[in-house]
């Protein structure tokens, strides 16, 4: 009684209760209950009393004795819950929770009062209080967010939430747990079978608790195990609802599963994360819900099979576009599906295979994710007691799943292709029977999937349709989308006999980077697991991706090839490929790429170098070969970084020096010592190296090892004793002085000697004096040697190798002691460049200082001349006066010398001199650029590299004809030169947005004049040498010119293409119309090229072409994510804007010029009229509406164009028909077994409307027909232009639509004969049935490549029907060409 007094239940009178009950709790209470601070405690005590008393007695009987009825309790609960708002304090919120708990406990009590206590409105408010308890820990955040927006809302609309302390939030959280326990017990007792709304609300509350509980759990409870207690209770409550007590099991499970679907897919968390990583609790919630689904199926079995299937289908379909979400969801679906009964599993796999062909991209990706999980596990066996049909048995095999994955690799959507490759890689890496299944798949054709198979609807229907539909806030996929699955032709299945490499390799080079990354990963897994052999072809594919434009792909590629090398460390081809792929990455433009490459090289070559497990010696042995020598510089750069990181030291050198005795590894050890001693060393290592050098120098070792030994000794000389230094110095000097050094050893030997001398002397000056003295002695000896050669008789034969040795000695010594070079020695070396009978007046260059009469004409070999050029250039580096004299002579060699080794060395020397003497070399740079078209492939390749280096460092500019020559190299016939030139041009020299396109646009018109060798234009005139004219002459090669133009157009942006079209019309076509460029034999090719460029597909805008491709191929593919939708909208807006600009500007500028050009060519009867008509046809097809608007003011001009296009199309058809007729006549005559001179009898059906004369003419022998045609041609040349009757043809087609014909008029001076009369212009239309202009909605226009005028046949007889409404006469029109 004391508890009831504190609850104020006795204070409720009949006047207070009856109005509220009679209004069905829709009116606000008009009374006030005075609750005290002890009210909440009293409610708690009363709840405990009811629970204890209710086990023994009827609680409602006791309450009736105190005059408390169900209505009193309903009104009391309604009063507390109705006043619950966000602004309620802690006591009010706790009181509401306690009232909810009391209401739940009383509903469980037996007796007549329990059924009367239930009311849907009170029940709904009770559930709302539970939702409030799950949000108490976010009150602080919500109050802060409201403060930020308070200035935007009126004061009367602001509702400030009460900020609770952590202790208060924990108290409410614990109370929620107690309420949920009682709620779950109530669901076991009270039936909601006929209370659908309350049932659905209960499910929604449980789902809300699962989603939103523990948002900030770490600030609420110290024990992590307590966090999941409300979730577990909510899951238990949902399981209790799915029981016969509350309704039909199938409908209840559908309802529960549908509301839980967003929790499984984590869609709510993905939306709230805003791109951030998903919290761990979200994944745990998803797993808990899937455990509930599994438990429900174990309990109810086939009763929930339908709803479980629908849930799995919708989970796959509605999974958000997040990688972690899709992976997690696919894992959950796999675990559930794999453990289902066999028949259920087989049917689901059949649906999954069809679902993988759905038109929506996200659906196909989701299906592939689940397939990947299933393929990793073993196939499910079929027990003998279960009978399956043929289709179901097929679905149990992995073959059908792998078949779908392989088919998806060729999908039109990049996302699907990438996912299919990822699945394939995962299956190859984890699957155990992949090889068997893969071979089985390729040996058989893919199974056709019927889209009309009977299937369980995928959507989740309403639990009780009569009660109303489920809210739209829970989207479901309709059966029309997922049940009837058409199989569009989105992809192609690999043909029988295809290899795994042939399936993956095309994807490695795709344009979409996400596909390339997945393909690289798949190729790596296939190589590591042996599904693809590590052959040159497969390794080259992986190596090529190490130079991918995208950083992430390059990183993945070098990691992949390193992983493959770890699996196959003894594969020689793989080792070479690894070096060639990874080492150049050290010079990558991205720092992160450099660091990754250094790390991989360190792990492979530096770590564990002294251990027996070290397997990097084979790679080091490759670096000491001639093929691997170019990559040693990268290793030296890496060694420098290792030294900066203090990873190199005496211990590393000590480990390496132990292998100097190893016969198989000593060359690699000397190479490492040569590189590492640049950065570190000590006396012990130096003594060890000196000892081994003395031993090895007396033996016959390779040249590469000799160079490494000499370099190592020079770098270690500072650690040697004085006696060892002297021994080393004497031995090296003796080798040089006695000419025992190969020319490759002269440079390293001079460098080592200089380092030894510097280590012996105290300062630089004294070391310089000692070096100069020795160098002077060598130069004097060489001076005497060359003087004897030059001054001797021409019959004297000298040793070429000795001459070359002296040349290199002079080159090395002159660079270190330039002032010691004798003048006579310089003259002698220059004399080696003269040829027999050569005189200065023949060369035109600056004469040498020495009179030519003192030199004998000697037959000098090309090898000596080449080495002379090289070393003379080295002397010029330090002698400016000599450089001024020799640079013109060297440039002359580029023009006149026939030996490629001489021209190559001249190019190298002039490139180096250009850095030091830019102004001197700049005068002859045109001759250097001409080497881009040299007949030698080696020189063209070196020219690309050297000239690109000068352009990159801005020693030379894009001026003169350099760009035209470089573009010639970019389209070189040799693929190596072509790829190298394009790489430098696009990736190095003109790298950046629109840089290349802007340069190409500005010089495109000049390219037309240059490549056509047209030299009569005032603006585009080019100074060319005879050699340049010969090497770069493509005026007679139309295909080569078009290849050049297409390369320029491909690398232009859309804005450049828009401007270029107008520029070509204004600068070239209009120049022909105005007579600036006369139309003659010299300019004919220029006009042809211009029209061909305007007609080619490359000049069309990229965005418009992409729109056509998407319309043709991906018409049914819809954007599945918000990002894709935004991008699609931006692209559509861009295309629309560009299309409007193009249609307005291009048509206004082009059409008048093209029409004027057409009239001019028609007047001159030029064969190029056909080319103009082809381009005019293209313009009309693309811009039909705009052309109509422009020509609407001049209807006479419109009718002329209409008539000419119609006539042109008819002539084209006649020409094709004539070709087909000639082929049909020629084929039987050339048949084997036909006697010579015999004419086969050909029975041909005459065409409709053909006259007897025409039929007889067609049956004439070919020789007779040729005579007739020749006679007609001669007669046509003598006859004036007339229009003849063609009444026979008009009678032959009486059913054809009447065609307007041109009347004869006397106004020939005002218009051409084919123009209709002004009075009848209203009858001329652009109707689709008679117009050559194709509407945009029709088939895509074909881009016709204009024929070159040289290959254009002479025009034939034209049959023209004049559109004259006055007369219906026919005539035949013959024109003289």
Automatic annotation (TrEMBL):
The keyword Metal-binding does not apply. Residues 1292-1303 have a biased composition (Low complexity). Pfam families: Cnd1. Keywords: Cell cycle, Cell division, DNA condensation, Mitosis, Nucleus. InterPro entries: ARM-like, ARM-type_fold, CND1/NCAPD3, Cnd1_C. It comes from the Eukaryota. Residues 902-1067 form the Condensin complex subunit 1 C-terminal domain. Residues 143-162, 1214-1242, 1292-1319, 1341-1377 are annotated as: Disordered. Residues 151-162 have a biased composition (Basic and acidic residues). It is found in: Nucleus. Residues 1358-1367 have a biased composition (Polar residues). Its main location: nucleus. This is Condensin complex subunit 1 C-terminal domain-containing protein. It comes from Clavelina lepadiformis.
């Amino acid at each position: 009684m004391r508890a009831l007094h504190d609850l104020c239940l006795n204070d409720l009178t009949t006047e207070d209760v009856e109005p509220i009950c009679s209004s069905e709790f829709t009116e606000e209470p008009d009374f006030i209950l005075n609750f005290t601070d002890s009210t909440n405690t009293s409610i708690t005590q009363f709840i405990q009393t009811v629970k204890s008393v209710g086990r023994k007695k009827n609680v409602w009987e006791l309450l009736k004795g105190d005059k408390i009825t169900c209505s009193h309790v309903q009104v009391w609960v309604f009063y507390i819950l109705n006043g619950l708002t966000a602004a309620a304090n802690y006591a009010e919120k706790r009181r509401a929770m306690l009232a909810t708990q009391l209401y739940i406990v009383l509903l469980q009590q037996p007796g007549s009062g329990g059924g009367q206590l239930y009311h849907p409105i009170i029940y709904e408010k009770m559930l709302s209080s539970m939702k409030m308890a799950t949000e108490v820990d976010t009150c602080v955040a919500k109050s802060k967010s409201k403060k930020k927006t308070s200035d935007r809302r009126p004061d009367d609309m602001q509702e400030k939430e009460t900020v609770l302390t952590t202790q208060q939030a924990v108290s409410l959280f614990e109370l929620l747990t107690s309420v949920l326990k009682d709620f779950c017990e109530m669901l076991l007792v009270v039936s909601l079978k006929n209370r659908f709304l309350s049932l659905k609300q209960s499910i929604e509350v449980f789902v809300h608790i699962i989603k939103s509980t523990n948002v900030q759990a770490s600030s609420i409870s110290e024990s992590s195990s307590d966090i999941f207690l409300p979730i577990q209770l909510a899951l238990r409550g949902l399981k209790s609802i799915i029981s016969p007590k509350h309704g039909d099991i199938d409908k209840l499970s559908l309802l529960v599963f549908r509301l839980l679907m967003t929790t499984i897919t984590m869609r709510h968390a993905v939306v709230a994360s805003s791109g951030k990583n998903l919290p761990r609790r979200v994944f745990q919630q998803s797993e808990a819900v899937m455990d509930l689904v599994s438990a429900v199926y174990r309990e109810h079995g086939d009763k929930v099979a339908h709803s479980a299937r629908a849930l799995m289908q919708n989970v796959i379909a509605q999974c958000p576009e997040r990688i972690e979400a899709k992976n997690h969801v696919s894992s959950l679906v796999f675990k559930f599906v794999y453990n289902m009964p066999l028949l259920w599993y087989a049917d689901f796999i059949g649906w999954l295979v069809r679902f993988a062909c759905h038109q929506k991209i996200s659906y196909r990706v989701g299906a592939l994710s689940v397939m990947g999980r299933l393929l990793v596990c073993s196939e499910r066996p079929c027990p003998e007691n279960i009978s399956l049909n043929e289709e179901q048995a097929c679905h149990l095999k992995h073959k059908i799943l792998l078949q779908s994955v392989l088919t998806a690799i060729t999908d039109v959507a990049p996302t699907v292709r990438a996912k299919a490759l990822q699945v394939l890689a995962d299956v190859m890496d984890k699957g155990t029977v992949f090889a068997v299944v893969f071979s089985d798949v390729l040996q058989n054709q893919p199974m056709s999937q019927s889209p009309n198979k009977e299937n369980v609807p995928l959507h989740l229907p309403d639990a009780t349709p009569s009660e109303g539909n489920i809210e739209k806030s829970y989207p479901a996929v309709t059966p029309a989308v997922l049940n009837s699955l058409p199989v569009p032709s989105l992809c192609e299945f690999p043909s029988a006999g295809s290899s795994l490499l042939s399936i993956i390799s095309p994807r490695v080079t795709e344009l979409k980077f996400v596909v390339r990354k997945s393909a690289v990963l798949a190729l790596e897994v296939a190589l590591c697991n042996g599904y693809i052999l590590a052959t040159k072809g497969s390794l080259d594919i992986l190596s090529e991706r190490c130079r991918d434009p995208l950083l992430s792909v390059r990183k993945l590629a070098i990691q992949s090839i390193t992983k493959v090398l770890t699996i196959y460390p003894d594969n020689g081809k793989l080792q070479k490929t690894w070096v060639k792929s990874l080492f150049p990455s050290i010079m990558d433009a991205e720092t992160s790429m450099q660091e990754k490459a250094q790390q991989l090289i360190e792990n492979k070559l530096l770590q564990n170098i002294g251990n027996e497990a070290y397997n990097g010696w084979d790679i080091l042995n490759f670096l000491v070969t001639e093929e691997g020598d170019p990559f040693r510089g990268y290793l030296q750069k890496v060694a420098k970084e290792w030294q900066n990181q203090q990873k190199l030291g005496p211990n590393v050198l000590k480990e390496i020096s132990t292998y100097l005795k190893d016969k198989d590894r000593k060359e690699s050890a000397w190479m490492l010592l040569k590189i590492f001693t640049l950065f570190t060393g000590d006396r012990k290592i130096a003594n060890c190296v000196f000892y081994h050098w003395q031993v090895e120098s007396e033996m016959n070792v390779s040249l590469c090892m000799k160079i490494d030994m000499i370099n190592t000794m020079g770098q270690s000389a500072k650690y040697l004793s004085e006696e060892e230094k002297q021994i080393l110095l004497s031995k090296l000097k003796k080798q040089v002085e006695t000419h025992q050094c190969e020319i490759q050893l002269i440079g390293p030997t001079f460098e080592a000697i200089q380092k030894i001398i510097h280590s012996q002397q105290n300062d630089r000056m004294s070391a310089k004096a000692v070096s100069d003295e020795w160098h002077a002695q060598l130069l004097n000896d060489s001076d005497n040697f060359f003087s004897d050669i030059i001054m001797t008789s021409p019959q004297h034969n000298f040793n070429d190798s000795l001459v070359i040795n002296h040349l290199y000695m002079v080159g090395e010594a002159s660079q270190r002691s330039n002032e010691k070079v004798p003048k006579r020695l310089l003259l002698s070396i220059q004399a080696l460049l003269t040829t027999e009978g050569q005189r200065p007046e023949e060369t035109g260059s600056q004469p040498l200082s020495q009179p030519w009469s003192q030199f004998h004409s000697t037959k000098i070999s090309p090898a000596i001349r080449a080495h002379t050029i090289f070393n003379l250039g080295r002397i010029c580096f330090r002698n400016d006066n000599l450089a001024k004299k020799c640079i013109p002579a060297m440039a002359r060699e580029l023009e006149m010398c026939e030996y490629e080794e001489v021209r190559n060395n001249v190019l190298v020397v002039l490139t180096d001199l250009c850095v030091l003497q830019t102004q001197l070399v700049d005068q002859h740079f045109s001759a250097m650029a001409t080497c881009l078209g040299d007949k030698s492939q080696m020189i063209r390749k070196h020219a690309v590299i050297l000239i690109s280096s000068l352009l990159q460092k801005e020693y030379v500019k894009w001026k003169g004809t350099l760009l035209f020559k470089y573009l010639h190299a970019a389209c070189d016939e040799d693929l190596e030169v072509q790829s190298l030139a394009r790489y430098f041009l696009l990736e190095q020299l003109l790298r950046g947005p629109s840089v290349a396109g802007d340069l190409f646009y500005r010089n495109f018109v000049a390219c037309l004049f240059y490549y056509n060798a047209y030299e009569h234009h005032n603006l585009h005139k080019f100074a060319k040498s005879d050699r340049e004219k010969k090497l770069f002459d493509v005026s007679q090669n139309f295909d080569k010119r078009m290849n050049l133009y297409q390369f320029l157009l491909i690398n232009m942006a859309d804005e450049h293409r828009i401007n270029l079209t107008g520029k070509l019309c204004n600068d070239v076509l209009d120049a022909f119309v105005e007579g600036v460029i006369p139309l003659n034999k010299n300019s004919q090719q220029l006009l042809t090229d211009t029209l061909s460029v305007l007609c080619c597909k490359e000049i069309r805008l990229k965005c418009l072409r992409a729109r056509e491709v998407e319309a043709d191929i991906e018409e049914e593919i819809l954007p599945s994510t918000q990002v894709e939708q935004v991008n699609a909208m931006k692209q559509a807006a861009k295309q629309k804007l560009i299309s409007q600009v193009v249609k307005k500007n291009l048509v206004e500028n082009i059409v008048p010029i093209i029409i004027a050009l057409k009239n001019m060519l028609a007047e001159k009867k030029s064969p190029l009229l056909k080319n103009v008509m082809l381009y005019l046809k293209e313009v009309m097809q693309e811009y039909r509406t705009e052309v109509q608007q422009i020509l609407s003011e001049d209807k006479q001009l419109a009718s002329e164009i209409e008539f000419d296009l119609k006539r042109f199309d008819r002539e084209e058809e006649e020409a094709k028909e004539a070709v087909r007729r000639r082929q049909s006549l020629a084929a039987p005559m050339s048949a084997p077994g036909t006697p010579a001179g015999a004419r086969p009898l050909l029975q041909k059906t005459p065409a409709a409307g053909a006259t007897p004369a025409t039929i007889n003419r067609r049956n004439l022998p070919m020789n007779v027909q040729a005579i007739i045609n020749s006679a007609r041609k001669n007669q046509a040349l003598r006859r004036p232009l007339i229009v003849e009757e063609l009444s026979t043809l008009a009678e032959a087609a009486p059913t054809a639509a009447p065609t307007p014909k041109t009347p004869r008029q006397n106004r020939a001076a005002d218009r051409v004969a084919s123009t209709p009369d002004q009075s009848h212009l209203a009858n001329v239309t652009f109707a689709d049935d008679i117009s050559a202009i194709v509407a945009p909605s029709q088939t895509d226009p074909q881009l016709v490549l204009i024929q070159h005028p040289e290959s254009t046949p002479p025009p034939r007889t034209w049959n023209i029907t004049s559109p004259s409404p006055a007369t219906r006469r026919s005539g035949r029109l013959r024109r003289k060409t």
